[in-house]
């Protein structure tokens, strides 16, 4: 689960100093994103684009969220034309990765919000459709309706933060979030109950469906935020995801990357095909010929279950995602990274190797490989916690990217 650190200050200089202190903090490599709370600035000394560029120079490749929280939803910025103008101006700098927008959950004004979202996305940015209520949490059905209204906008992330008055309120929001996530597995959700009463909801992300959580390093931007050290400790204990699984088609680079990442993490690397061949006392292609694919998939599923719940790097065969039970195990027990490469890359690598999987016999051409990859791609993406675009990247660059993803997700 990615950690987001809010940055707040009275001036741009104070924010930049806080960012620099954050970069020097030992927990900085574990952070997924920083949020600049622009609404909390009491005065603006320099152009917004300059402030954003200086922020980017400090945080490097970390994600940057630009947020103007208005007085409608607990912030300090007046809602009006200037709100829209400032958000578009921020995105025109091409610096932020995300713009947080307090979209309407009713019908009034939807056209204006859709236009603003389209402008941000047209400038290369992503949008967080957010809703906050610092006074109350509505009932379960209304929570679900708010999430449905937020997700009706074509944004990348949906965010909902509510103040609970009872334990039932906390459970209602978590259930609403989990149901929404199950219906929208490819979209990201940030869901939280605020205050001390809702604090547990910020770490129970497997139950709430939330993809990210706001944590504090210096000061909290909302009631109930965890300190980063405590959050990481508790989140890791609660998470069922202990190991790393590298997913992808044959020839995507799983076998090359697994031992290098394992060495970096101080873990053990396991090649599932190799373990299966040792168990069968024969090559996989021979096992296919003698016993068929169905029996092979049963043995593969059994081995995957036995390797769950441990800190290691797993390199499964490309077809491991074909069985629903395997996808469930991968989702629950592994941080899964899909190494995505083109059919041309696969063909080139397989042509250079000695062994070809049984299902590729007689299909060693771009069209056949591409068709098989397209059929499996949806399964890889369903399971993946992270997608690594592997084409054109060196082995060392891929290792660094994967290692950073592990740190940012608490492994």
Automatic annotation (TrEMBL):
Query: What SUPFAM superfamilies has UniProt attached to this entry?
Result: Aldolase, P-loop containing nucleoside triphosphate hydrolases
The record's remark on the cofactor is: Binds 1 Mg(2+) ion per subunit.
Provide the catalytic activity annotation.
shikimate + ATP = 3-phosphoshikimate + ADP + H(+); 3-dehydroquinate = 3-dehydroshikimate + H2O
Which keywords are on file for this protein? Amino-acid biosynthesis, Aromatic amino acid biosynthesis, ATP-binding, Cytoplasm, Kinase, Lyase, Magnesium, Metal-binding, Nucleotide-binding, Schiff base, Transferase
Its needed co-factors are: Mg(2+)
Q: Which GO terms describe its molecular function?
A: 3-dehydroquinate dehydratase activity; ATP binding; magnesium ion binding; shikimate kinase activity
Q: Does the keyword Cytoplasm apply?
A: yes
Where, in this chain's numbering, is ATP bound?
251-256, 357
Record-listed E.C. numbers? 2.7.1.71
GO biological processes: 3,4-dihydroxybenzoate biosynthetic process; amino acid biosynthetic process; aromatic amino acid family biosynthetic process; chorismate biosynthetic process
The cross-references to CDD domains, in alphabetical order and at most eight, read: DHQase_I, SK
Q: Which PROSITE patterns match?
A: SHIKIMATE_KINASE (PS01128)
| Enzyme type, top EC level | transferase
Residues at which substrate binds: 273, 297, 318, 376
Q: Which family does it belong to?
A: Belongs to the shikimate kinase family.
* NCBIfam families named among the record's database cross-references: aroD (TIGR01093)
Quaternary structure note: Monomer.
> How is this protein named in the record?
Shikimate kinase
Write down the species.
Oribacterium asaccharolyticum ACB7
